[in-house]
Specification:
FAD/NAD(P)-binding domain; alpha/beta; binds flavin-adenine dinucleotide; seven-stranded mixed beta sheet; single chain; 400 residues
Amino acid sequence: MSKRHALIIGAGIGGLSTAAALERIGWSVAIYERAPASPRSGAGIVLAPNALAVLEQLGAAGKVRNRGARVGCAEILRQDGRPITAVPVQQQAQRYGTYSYLIHRETLQSVLAGQLERTAVHYGKQLVDLYQQGNEVTAVFADGTSACGQLLIGADGIHSAVRRKLPAAALPAGGDALRYAGFTALRGICTLGNLPYSSEEGGGFEAWGSGLRFGLSHLGEGRVFWFAALNAEAGGQHSPSSAKAALLARVQNWYEPVAQAVSATPEAVLLQHDIYDRAPLRCWSFGSVTLLGDAAHPMLPNLGQGGAQALEDAAQLAACLRERPGDVPAALAAYEAARIPRTSRIVRQSRRMGRVAQLENRLAVSLRNSVLRAMPSPLQLQQLDWLIGYRPAEFQEHLR
Ligand SMILES: Cc1cc2nc3c(=O)[nH]c(=O)nc-3n(C[C@H](O)[C@H](O)[C@H](O)COP(=O)(O)OP(=O)(O)OC[C@H]3O[C@@H](n4cnc5c(N)ncnc54)[C@H](O)[C@@H]3O)c2cc1C
């Protein structure tokens, strides 16, 4: 076995992109995924310019643009379709050299998997334990097998088993419990004619009501993706047919494509998830083990940045390992020092954004809409610059 062998736990966006980045700096990598096979379901995911900058380094940005849909329009509307504001997507595209793209998660993961040259993805491998001895780390799986390397990366999502192994000093002061967002998300994919947004332009709208937000956008390959963020008690899961009926009842008099999109969505592809995050950690690493993506910084989806931050993590981790060959703990210390402040800020900002977007009080909703309407495009651009205009770390020699 190579003396630079990494074990990655989880084959999501974080695990796959990290494997691709580590391969490019000369590490050998193996991914261990609990699921029996690569995913066959999922929904749309927006990739902002900061995410595309990492995909560019991985050689995957062109494929994402071909198979996804550019976001050429992003309006924020009242529930009846009257405009509140529009995200200045053209100016953003000019400033950052790319539009944002919406793509099916399954497609994104298959594009990332296609970038792997030497890494095997081992399915049906659930990590249940890990231990370290000297410079070696061993992962133990539920089927009784184990694997060993010089680095273990927990890219195992919001319920991370690797995160549970962190020392107590790493945890937030108030504990590490899941924090409910106050809303549940319904997502669907369908085909829909007569949209007011052409598929060439791409994009769509978000309609903001009281305690209910509905977004719809072209997904590429002839499909439309929609989501509804609905204020609700945690745990009130319904069957797909009752969730669909309840949502249809709520959006009866909304802007026309809303009810149409929900009606046109087969129940079999309807997803419902209560939405959670966790408070930011103080540190992510211990010895030769670290966290990445949702395992490190699960965030509410209100800024559409969870996947993008996993990609940024992957680039930063590869850059730090490349700069400190032979000293994994030092590389991990540099990695988390670079990443924790930014991802913690996004976790907090996503929470704040959720409170504003999910307001219920009609007076507060009307005040919010007036403030948004009055905000000029240059200010909107400036407010998002730190987020989507961020230049991720470069990890390949020829890009420096
Ligand atoms: C409603 C919603 C909308 C979103 N929209 C966007 C968006 O528009 N843009 C964006 O950038 N982000 C978005 N996100 C966030 C994004 O989906 C996540 O941040 C991203 O998928 C995190 O990737 P990950 O690889 O870190 O974790 P995951 O995708 O959760 O992958 C973790 C993997 O680890 C595996 N695993 C778990 N435990 C184990 C174990 N013990 N052993 C082995 N394997 C294990 C899991 O099966 C899974 O495959 C959204 C999230 C939600 C909920």
